[in-house]
Amino acid sequence: MSQFHQVFFDEAEEHLAAMESLLLAVDLAAPDAEDLNAIFRAAHSIKGGAATFGFADLADFTHVMENLLDRVRRGELALTAAMVDVCLESKDALKTLLTAHRGGPEAEAAWVADLRSRLSALSRGDAVAPAAVEADPFVAHTARPPSCDEPGVLHTLYVEIDATAAVDMPALLDKLGRLGTVSLAREGSADAPWLLVFTSELAETELAETLAFAVAPGLYRVLDGRVEEDDGFGLFLSAPAGEPAATVASEDEGFGLFAPLPAPTAPPASAGYEEDGFGLFAPLPAESSPPDAAAVPGPAPSAAPASVSPGGRERAAPAAAVENSLRVSTEKVDTLLNLVGELVITQSMLQQYGSELDPVLHERLLNGIAQLERNSRELQEAVMSIRMTPVASVFNRFPRVVRDLAAKLDKEVELKMVGEHTELDKGFVEKLSDPLTHLVRNSLDHGIEPPEVRRAKGKAPVGRLTLRAFHQGGSIVIEVNDDGAGLDRERILAKARERGMTVSDSMSDAEVWSLIFEAGFSTAAEVTDVSGRGVGMDVVRKNIHAMGGRIEIDSLPDYGTTMRIRLPLTLAILDGMSVRVGRDTFVLPLGFVLESLQPAAADVRSVAGRGRVVNMRGDYVPIVTLSGFFGDIDGAMSEPSEGILIIVESEGIRAAVLVDELVGQQQFVVKNLETNYRKVGGLSGATILGDGQVALILDVAAIVRSGLREGAQAASLTA
Amino acid sequence: MALTDTQQPSGADGTRELLVFALGQEEYGIDILKVQEIRGYDAVTRIAGAPDFIKGVINLRGHIVPIVDLRLKFKLGDVGYSPFTVVIILNIFDRTVGVVVDGVSDVVRLGDDAIRPAPDLGAAVDTTYILGLGTLAERMVIVIDIEKLMRSDDMALIDAGVAA
């Protein structure tokens, strides 16, 4: 499950970022309806994901936020500046909650609760007192951490230098004096270090770096004071600047050194200290301490305060691990893929020339070529694997979704997944999860009936939900199928009229079904936590269109609904069978191939000059020749008994494609013909073979349809 | 005719650089900026069912690029193919297309005043695509609008919907 957490975190971060930029750009006087929808959808998506993965606090918070945004979006509430402010702050809160779930510091519970109540007050239409925020300087600080690197901001830093260090103190003071204001707070002695108070624009890391030139590492440290700004760090306010010694840890506490600092401040601040202070302080020990000291995190950390700091550092590990996935634009990966393809071709060329050389004389060269071959193959596989992911990585999150939702809705549902190994583009995988989640939730909520209703209808009490993925005619098809109630034509039409859409009773089913993709369209009687806000379907369609795909609906009352997402194959990798016809090589997508056979002359019948069929264990299958389909192909065989028949099936119809020879079976990178040329009937794309030649990929669905025309009559006559 | 054609703007100094290639007995010039590279003819995969002057597609560093034989398109008699047959790879209207010609001679810079409107002569290329005739010492170069030519319907290079 944790692997999907990562995906959710990444997605949620994106949604939050999008929400923020939209909120910042929104025009209060005349908010754009599409922007409001987008903000709402971002909240909705986070809620959906959070609920799926059991992050109750996130889901709960976003639910409240969503209520407000929904009313704004519907025009029931006018957007006010206060709302935008609260929403922005809520975004920060969500981010904090999210960070907490990724192993970061805990969020300030009081702050979140306060925001939550303000959100719900706003969504009830009440005025809100923003004073609640200002009252607590710490909260303001958490929402907008001051940037220490901001120019012009003065930092007061305390520098502690071990008395044993051989430091030319007057020279150091002089040096620092040129960078800012420095004063000596305490003379160094045998049992107390030197203490300097330094005020400048330098952040503490910069100061530490400066000091590193003058003082041996490990013998000094820099402690953050407070920023001379109104909303400063707060936590140091209680430590009087004149008595910094009181806040300085004693030497033997080693790395507990920062822990005692927050101790004098009020307890709520300690959490905040941990959150922000951590980021500021953590790099320091590493920088200002020798490696051996780093290995010993405080020999005897004092009980309560010390546990804060090491705890914080332990949590740093997962926070850092979060960054181990890298998001790269697909364009870069495509370029890489093309370059590697070229490399492989160059390598096979070298290999071919190398094979003509005398192996004794050129042993080292040939070894090098062999090595190059291995390396480039591995490189190619690695690059390919960047892009391709089995659809299972999307599907695998659904067993949990379905289980939880079914429990919530008091329904019994059995989930079946088919074709999880179908590989598809990584870009699609990421973009598919949202729409698919919406479709699955919709099917469960609206499609599949409660058990008692199902029994009354004479169906099995357990509903069936099928997720299916497969390749079809140059597309990847992903289906969400349920055996539920089906779409209610009358209700959709009624709802459409209610919303003032122009509809008529004579619309075809397909047209009626497509109405549910309109924004804000929901036929659910009441808004539930699961679905029914009418946000899902328009997002689904939008996302799928963005991927260059389309979505279709099949629905029959009481029989069920199938939502079919059809995605283009661009850059999908295809398992294919390469075949030779005449001098040309073609690729047949393996998904369509049933079997291949060499027919006996007696099994091939020709029917009244209309075409030929082959007798396959009693079934008559029409024979399609590529010459017949494309016009003449030089040197192509025309006699089935001399060549090989490949039996293909598309949409339940079979045809036998006549080829001269089977060449091999491998994976091909699908290239679009239309980029530089145009659509060619019967071809779904092109690919590049190992020798650099282009091979064309056959569109089996089109070929089978032509076979149907050519040979169906023949088959029926023979049979 | 269309010396002011916007498709082929002349340089600021009133001159244009042309790549000169031979087709049959004639020399043609095209805007050098439309040319991506020049390469030999090899490994063309035929597209069954395409017109004969579309030789097929090649793999140009991972891109599938169609190859048009202008000699066949303009019916310039016998054509042969060898690794020395020249293919000019063009970059036009955001696409990459290769054209087969008899040979590339040189790159010349012609002043706009050196280009005269073409009379309706018997050149292989339809006058619609001819920008003018350039004189270069003893030679005559037919300046053509390669983009307009490749975009034309009878080239069948792009889908009708896209071409519009």
Automatic annotation (TrEMBL), chain B:
Gene3D superfamilies named in the record: CheA-289, Domain 4, SH3 Domains
Keywords from the UniProt entry: Chemotaxis, Cytoplasm
GO CC terms of this entry: cytosol
Matches recorded under PROSITE patterns: CHEW
UniProt xrefs under SUPFAM superfamilies: CheW-like (SSF50341)
Domain CheW-like: 15-155
A Pfam family matched in the record: CheW
Subcellular locations according to the entry: Cytoplasm
Main localization of the protein described in the UniProt heading: cytoplasm
GO BP term, example: chemotaxis
InterPro entries on file: CheW, CheW-like_dom_sf, CheW-lke_dom
Highest taxon in the source lineage: Bacteria
Name this protein carries in UniProt: Chemotaxis protein CheW
Gene source species: Crenobacter luteus
